[in-house]
């Protein structure tokens, strides 16, 4: 077999599991067909945090994921810290460092901080927090000759030809095909839609929630369309009649827990819409006696769903902790939080907005952040003098945003005089 043929075969095997529709996606496709939903109605229905999918008698409660015998790892994303690869296990991704061992290698910090945050999510109860955090699985050092001898050949050689540090983590499932194709129908010019629907890379679609940004009118010609890390801005949420305040409240709650339960600054974390994780039974947590009693004797349970679940079509996930750091609740620590707030992509609403709906989003964010912070401080039994710290942080954000707006106004006035 020629190298090109081998590469194409590996690509087709790697793509097979990503193309297989999940249980939730099958239900979404059935609803879309039965109700003849338009692209806008599809996005309004399935991107809503209020839409819940219940099991249907016509949809099986089991699925058998495709497990190739050889695991070519397919690149599905990249950032400054590392490149992301899918694996034959549909619940696992590999994040491989771009600069192993160098000062810019932040992968171990990602592992460390993410594990701390994940442990707090476990303590609070993952079902009790609206924002999900992927589970970290294990870390592989660039010096681990045993692991790399067994796996290096399965990475694309053009992207990875030497040993590196690697982090294995829970994969955030991409949004379903009905959502992906509706986004293309809504926001991609008609002549290019079929091309982008067929683009394999667009299957890896996670949607960034930009609650602090509205799109500007573009004068440039159409140059492409990419669903990986697609950004959904506030004006789009309004057009789709989505409940942006629900997104704002969930993100505010998560940020407050990160700050005041984890004591992490949240620098450069991301908030994305993805699907819910499939509820496979973990090897560490099998079925209970009561659950087994309801099953037919000799039932296979390795790939079974827990019966009767109710699942949302989408979930908001928080990820990427590689640039995060711990902080102390001092004045300098609060300045660290403010810097992180503005250094992030515009996931958070902003104070002093021009439009009333944006001001309302900030109010929802602020109130939820403060109420959740109060719970965190009481749970953590922090000293009484720290009770005012969350409000002081938001007040400092308010002052900084006002200063930035005044600076932009002055710059615009100077430009108009030239």
Automatic annotation (TrEMBL):
InterPro entries: Znf_prot_DUF3669 (IPR022137)
UniProt superkingdom: Eukaryota
Pfam family, one: DUF3669
Residue ranges constituting the DUF3669 domain according to the UniProt record: 316-379
This protein's name: DUF3669 domain-containing protein
Annotated organism of origin: Decorospora gaudefroyi
